[in-house]
Amino acid sequence: MEKYSFLNLVKHAARHHENWRPAWRSPTPREAYEVVIVGGGGHGLATAYYLAKEHGVTDVAVLEKGWLGGGNTGRNTTIVRSNYLRDEAAHLYEFALKLWENLSLELNFNVMFSPRGVLNLGHSLQEMRDIERRVNANQLNGIDGAVLTAAEVQAKVPLLNCSPKARYPVLGASWQPRGGVARHDAVAWGFARAADALGVDLLQHTEVTGIRIEKGAAVGVATSRGFIGAHKVGCVAAGHSGVLAALAGLRLPIESRPLQALVSEPLKPCLDTVVMSNAVHCYISQSDKGDLVIGAGADAYNGYGQRGSFHVVEQALQAVCELFPAFGRVRMNRQWAGIVDVCPDACPIIGKTPVDGLYFNCGWGTGGFKATPGSGYVFADTLANDRPHPLAAPFSLERFHTGALIDEHGAAGVAH
Description:
Elements: H1 2-13, E1 32-38, H2 42-55, E2 60-63, E3 79-80, H3 87-100, H4 103-107, E4 118-122, H5 125-140, E5 146-149, H6 150-156, E6 172-176, E7 180-181, H7 184-197, E8 201-203, E9 208-214, E10 217-223, E11 226-235, H8 241-247, E12 255-264, E13 274-277, E14 282-286, E15 292-298, H9 310-323, E16 332-342, E17 349-352, E18 358-362, H10 372-385, H11 399-402, H12 409-412
Parallel strand pairs: 1-2, 1-11, 2-8, 4-13, 11-18
Antiparallel strand pairs: 3-7, 4-6, 5-6, 9-10, 10-11, 12-15, 12-16, 13-14, 14-15, 17-18
Helix pairs in contact: 2-7, 2-10, 3-10
């Protein structure tokens, strides 16, 4: 058996990757498509997949200026949860979480979804009151959740510093058992392969440089590979959505900021859940290969730099060492930033714009990754039927005119 395994390994090692079967095609752009989706991250690829699968719309092209999944999808900290406060947001994220639970089977691709549970720590009486309010709201919406005492938190995470003498004493936490993490690259690859199999064209290294509007309607996009016509244009470009909107003469109520993240050297398994703390601005989990995946806060300034700022990194690591003294000697392997687009109410924009045939899905802030399948599903439905999906209706652009905002700053994450 050992001899066979060794020979098998040598046989596969001798093969050059150039001969591997591609996971998806690299087609030449056609002159026009029924739908063009701008942005080849998780949300854009999911939109294309659900357009083809649920609505039979296969004349679709996904345009990505870099490589698929190379933007925010590949630069986040992979947390999945649905314990948001407001009914509108809670319903949307819970819908996404239910899709996550069967996504590997749906796509026939292991996205490595791991429902290991998510803890949101409370460090003050006011935070504990807010936690109790959010958990009660979740339970009323049929979303799993519980309020844990400090002792219960300590039992779940023995390495966590729950001493009453700690700089940030842990008074308790909210707990969502169904929450967890997933493999960000696998999500993009799974949706890309599935969309391609249904006939969607995935066009990498195709940067959109303009949106052509005739008689008040979008008719296509100018790209680095020429003009591509379209009956409908769906923009799903995360932090660069404001730039895209400007190409169509629109100004969206969003700000783009670098959001910091770090990853450590591999360790033996020591943290089997996700720990988040808004007060000390950090959240942490351990990947399947042993790395500590650490999320920090967003930079205070607007920008598109993917480096981030050293003082934010320093503050995040200080927080980690306060919460987990045992991690004080762990080396960090690398640090990066993703560009998050934040709306004034910390909720996304999903739907039509004043330009006919032009749709935007943006403003997810730190909630983008966890919403990936749900976002793609409702946006695909909106594009196919030219009207908002019921779950997406509250997140229309018009809410900034009517005043019907959905304030999720308390539950959205540390970046807001």
